[in-house]
Amino acid sequence: MPSNKKKGVSRHVPDTSLSVEGKSVSKTSRKSSKTNKLPPPPPGPEVDDVESEVESEEESEEESGGEQEGEDSGGDGYDSGHSSEFYDSAEEDDDEDEGSDDEEDEDEEDDDGFEDQGSDSDDDVDDELEMIETHTPPPPPAFSKSKTNPRSAVVQREIEKLHDSATVGVNQSLLHIDDLSSDDEEGNNTIGRVPLHWYDEYDHIGYDTSGSKVMKGAGESAEDGVEDIFKSLDDKLSASDKKKFTIYDALNGKEVTLTPREIEVIRRIQAGAYAHPEHDANPEYIDYFSSKKLEVGFNSNRVEPKSRFQPSKWEALQVRRLLKRLKDGKIDMDYLTGKKKSMQEKKEPDDKPREMWRGDEEDELLNRKAPTHIAAAKVKAPGTEESYNPPGEYIPTEDELKKWDELDVEDRPYGLLVPKKHPNLRSVGAYEHAVRERFERCLDLYLAPREMKRRLNIDPESLVPQLPKARDLKPYPTVRCMKYVTPSMEDGTMPKIRALSVSPDGQWLATGAEDGFVRLWEVGTGRLLRSWDLREKEGEGEGAVNCVAFNPNPNHHVLLASSATNCYVISTGVGNAEDSELTAALLSIASSGGGGGLSEKVKKAVKWEKFNRGGRKPLSKHATVEGVVAKLSFNGTIAAEGVKWHEKGDYFLTLTPSTGASCVLIHQLSKGNSQQPFGKKREVSAVEFHGSKPFLFVAGGNVVRIYHLVKQTMVKKLYPNCKYVTSMNLHSTGDHLILGTLDRKTIWFDLDLSDRPYKTMKYHEKAIRGVRFSRKYPLMASCADDGNVNVFHSTVYDDLMRNPLIVPVKVIRAHHQVGRLGATAIAWHPKLPWIFTAGADGATILWQDI
């Protein structure tokens, strides 16, 4: 509805229509309906009488000295005088109107009860004006200028009467017409609901649909038939009464006179009743929906076909089948009558307890066809940093806050949160990043893909390989049995033992020390038998022995030792008559200074020399040679494990890493000859002969290369993925290789399996100095600078489909550290599960399996 304003007060103006003897006159429409004809409204006082009553009451109030003043719209209720007369006369005329209703219905059978708004009939207009004069109720004080007290006792009684059904019937004729929506009203204002004071300086208030200006007051000149009715009414009313029923419509810029219907609506609203008397606040419930389900579709009204009413051949076939099964005894009457659901015998209930949870509920949940519900990830639980009074270590300093500002939110310790300390919980304000964190949480749930992961109910212990117990893998060394005491040096300190080796028969032990001596020990008694000084001048200088190696052939009692840039060939002088003859024949050429015939490259790299530093009586009466018999001089220092024998005992190789292409040289002791296998400079850290094949293993850098010495080609590359190889040893079968590295790794290669490590073990805390296989027992050991020796059970199977079994069985705390060195060398006994260890503390110890 349009908004009407008067003196700055906004009021709602309903549809301007009149109700006259069942006829409705409206500005916008006038409808006729025979069925909706209503009885005429009750007779009311004449307008003149109303005016006189109002004036007389005003005079009486002024004389009584009433000082209360109000605005033009100040009254809130009716006065007791004219309102009571109006309702009394309406109640008296109620009965008379009921009797006259039937007569009026007969007279107006052909009349619709309403006329169209556009009618030009003058008679109808005059009749309507007469009814307005005679039945117009007195105006409410809200629209009069009377100065009355707000809501007297009479007004309260009138409001109570309004709720009564009898009183509602009085004014029903004024409201029993078709309500028109405010959307149907036509207004002259085209500018919308905007303040009209914006147009105070202009002569128009908007534009019409054609784009022309709507001038101020232009709407007042557009008058139709209804406007004529109101104009004629205004002529008959006095100027003072006209103002009582007139309000100013500021939106459309004109004055509007309220109709009796609108006055009645306002009076009912002020009294707290419904605007329309026929409105039912509590209507009876009507069930508009039926419980029957109607079939809707193409065949909903289809006529049943004739075949539906004929006997079914399919049912006859089923009956014949059932009769045949009944004759054969496959079914009985109980099955046909439905007493039995199946002819199978019912199983007796089992009294055994059943599992309440089978354990496969999760599988059923995953295998169902419906989409799997994926629950959202849980929000991280609040921690101590989110407390209102966190500990001091959680509160950041200014420097930390500056560092946090430079970091991304994800890299900060607590994200957007900055822990703060408050005196109490009431002092904690709203979290400033709450909306942002909630938004990012929603983004994560919306954008981040989620996938249901099947939880594996696996026992963690089942993932650990079922290794045998250590006591089931005996024998292996566990107990310290014997210590070989090395003589101290001139300053009283114990020399560091750099290398050791055991003879093939396991009777003799050779050690190389930092003082330049090679010592020969008897294993069984621990007695020191011989000492050979390998320094340049006997008794002078320093030349630590880096490596010692017994000849692997048990018939050759020869020992190799390296010191600085020299390699010495030593005859131990032990053995029987036959072995002594073979040893003398092997050393005959080497003891005379070599056989010659060296190439120019080899002559630059190595030099064979006769060296005789002995003079003692041999330990064996059958031996003819004892002591150092030959010396090989090199251009560089020999490595720690730079001397290795071939399995047959005639060839040996030396490693001098600093000499470039001639770093690896192969020597033949029986002929006193040497050869250089490589022509290019390369980095080499460890070398090893294959036991049964003409293969040479060369470790350098990050690769271990395998060369075929006969074909002079590279066979294979192994990738240990380590920094530097310090020790290398080949299994007696020739199919497995172990490496020891500076980065504390023990690497096992299965040569038939892959060029990558089969297993990498990291049990030491410092650099590994030596790794060795036992020739007879499935044992392996490693020593490192931490002073420990780790013993492993290592079974190698002939079946290529089975992987080696590697089980750590013992950690031997063998030596204590001196400087940065701990356990420097290890060697297995060739016939027993014993191990010899040497360390920087000057001790050589035998460990047995007692």
From TrEMBL:
Ranges for region Disordered: 1-154, 337-358
WD repeats: 490-531
UniProt entry tagged with the keyword Electron transport: no
This protein's record includes keyword rRNA processing: yes
GO cellular component: nucleoplasm; PeBoW complex; preribosome, large subunit precursor
UniProt keywords, alphabetically: Nucleus, Repeat, Ribosome biogenesis, rRNA processing, WD repeat
Residue stretches of biased makeup (Basic and acidic residues): 342-358
One biological process term in Gene Ontology: maturation of LSU-rRNA from tricistronic rRNA transcript (SSU-rRNA, 5.8S rRNA, LSU-rRNA)
Domain BOP1 N-terminal: 199-477
GO molecular function, a single term: ribonucleoprotein complex binding
Positions with biased composition (Acidic residues): 46-74, 88-131
Family: Belongs to the WD repeat BOP1/ERB1 family.
Role description: Required for maturation of ribosomal RNAs and formation of the large ribosomal subunit.
Name this polypeptide is given: Ribosome biogenesis protein BOP1 homolog
Organism listed in the record: Triparma columacea
